[in-house]
């Protein structure tokens, strides 16, 4: 995050999901439980005041907070603005499948459909919109690539942050807080920003050949994610025409 006076927390509830005393996944079952990664402990960290920090930005996976949505109704979360970043299911899940079955890159050796996360994301969206904020922010990853500055400006306006023109660029290099998920962010660590792409492949069948070669459970995960994605996509920020 390039904004001054900002603290970024990277997937704190994912640590609870995989390693905490109430962990909900068996992926790291051989690893010891980490008592300090309970949902309550992480929640308290997010709710506390940080000296000299004006903006706290926390990124996480919706599946990591499944069965714990109610905590976001607590008083300590009342000033939080919830944002949902969506990506076309075939792109997202094919990428997840390749990373999940590449032990040398990520340490993972199998694909788990639950980690696709679209169903949990829609469930969280419904909870937030019904109990906390009737219009949570939704951003489409394709818009971020096609209109990076426009998307960032629209996002800042939606959540009450001052937009700065350098928000979509950064210095490449390691990020200490990402060490737990080494391999997952290899391309991001080598990048220096969001660069507006010259064209988008909009052909509906652009992934059909690759999808046909996928295991049945991966194809099923893509099919099951489509309705969730389309519901959220219909509510995304309209960034076209935003002046920067």
TrEMBL record:
<protein>
    <recommendedName>
        <fullName>Sulfotransferase family protein</fullName>
    </recommendedName>
</protein>
<dbReference type="Pfam" id="PF19798">
    <property type="entry name" value="Sulfotransfer_5"/>
</dbReference>
<dbReference type="InterPro" id="IPR027417">
    <property type="entry name" value="P-loop_NTPase"/>
</dbReference>
<dbReference type="InterPro" id="IPR053226">
    <property type="entry name" value="Pyrrolopyrazine_biosynth_F"/>
</dbReference>
């Amino acid at each position: 995050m390039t904004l001054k006076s900002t603290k970024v927390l990277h997937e704190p509830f994912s640590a609870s999901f995989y390693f905490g005393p109430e962990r909900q996944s068996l992926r790291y079952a051989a690893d010891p439980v980490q008592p300090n990664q309970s949902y309550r402990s992480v929640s308290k960290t997010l709710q506390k005041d940080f000296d000299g920090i004006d903006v706290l930005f926390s990124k996480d996976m919706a599946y990591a907070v499944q069965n714990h949505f109610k905590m976001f109704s607590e008083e300590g979360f009342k000033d939080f603005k919830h944002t949902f970043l969506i990506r076309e299911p075939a792109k997202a899940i094919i990428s997840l499948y390749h990373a999940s079955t590449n032990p040398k890159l990520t340490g993972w050796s199998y694909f788990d459909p639950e980690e696709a996360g679209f169903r949990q994301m829609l469930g969280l969206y419904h909870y937030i919109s019904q109990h906390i904020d009737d219009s949570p922010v939704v951003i489409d990853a394709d818009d971020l690539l096609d209109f990076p500055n426009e998307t960032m400006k629209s996002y800042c306006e939606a959540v009450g942050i001052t937009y700065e023109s350098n928000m979509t660029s950064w210095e490449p290099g390691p990020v200490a807080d990402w060490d737990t998920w080494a391999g997952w962010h290899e391309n991001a660590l080598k990048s220096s920003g969001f660069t507006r792409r010259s064209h988008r492949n909009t052909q509906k069948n652009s992934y059909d050949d690759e999808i046909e070669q996928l295991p049945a459970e991966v194809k099923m995960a893509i099919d099951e994610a489509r309705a969730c994605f389309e519901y959220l996509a219909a509510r995304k920020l309209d960034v076209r025409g935003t002046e920067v």
